[in-house]
Amino acid sequence: MTLDEYRFKGLRDKLVQLLVQKGITDNNVLTAIGEVPRHKFIESGLEEYAYLDKPLPIPAGQTISQPYTVAFQTQLLEVKRGEKILEIGTGSGYQAAILAHMGAIVYSLERQKELYIFSQIRLSDLGYNVKVFYGDGYQGKPSYAPFNKIIITCGAPYLPEDLKNQVAIGGYIVVPMDDGNSQVMKRFIRVSENRFDEEDHGRFSFVPMVKGLE
Length: 214
Ligand code: SAH
Fold this sequence. Notes:
The structure is a single chain. The strands form two sheets. The chain has a seven-stranded mixed beta sheet with strand order 5-4-3-6-7-8-9. Helix 1 packs antiparallel against helix 2. Helices cover 30% and strands 27% of the residues. The protein has a single domain, classed as Rossmann fold (3-Layer(aba) Sandwich). It has helices at residues 3-21, 27-35, 67-77, 94-101, 113-125, 161-165; strands at residues 56-58, 62-64, 84-88, 105-110, 130-134, 147-152, 167-178, 183-190, 196-204. It is of the alpha/beta class. The protein has six helices and nine strands. The protein binds S-adenosyl-L-homocysteine (SAH). Residues 62-65, 88-89, 91-92, 94-95, 109-112, 115, 136-138, 153-154, 207, 209-210 line the site of S-adenosyl-L-homocysteine (SAH).
């Protein structure tokens, strides 16, 4: 380990302690946050801030979510090794890296070409096996469906019908649902072919889920 890596590891350990204080209990989530190098997913010059519990700007006017939000959403997914997970909104690739680190088989869609290109290169350079696609999350990725879990990392005005069809029965969709002001974190559980149970898990703030490609 270089001195820098050693220092960043110390900062990650502190961040993990903070997330525990804030109520995150899933040990697999905490281990992933403690090991994935968040400073490699943000713009150069901002590395110093990588392990504060804060969102940070990434290209194309988007943001990498605050670590607490990533941890909370990931905890709601109840990730198990070998599960197929579809992410909508690759952004920096950090959330996808957390899921891959936890042993999931990750597919991720991004509508901003610049972010799609950067995150794909970054994830493969860092050794994370994530399939990144340039595509519109409203359509999902039917050729790889069904998924055990779907995670949306942008504020959705409604739950797209295509995504409902692409989650397996027994699977979850975790989505920050926009109500015009901020977003309510929802977990939809597909209990049968046509029925979803719906849970509310508090308010968060996300960039919007936008239709079509950029
Ligand atoms: N999970 C990301 C968070 C990025 S912010 C991370 O860990 O860094 C949300 C991302 O969703 C942005 O990059 C935005 O471009 C993308 N997005 C918004 N609407 C989308 C859509 N319809 N399909 C795919 N991606 C979308």
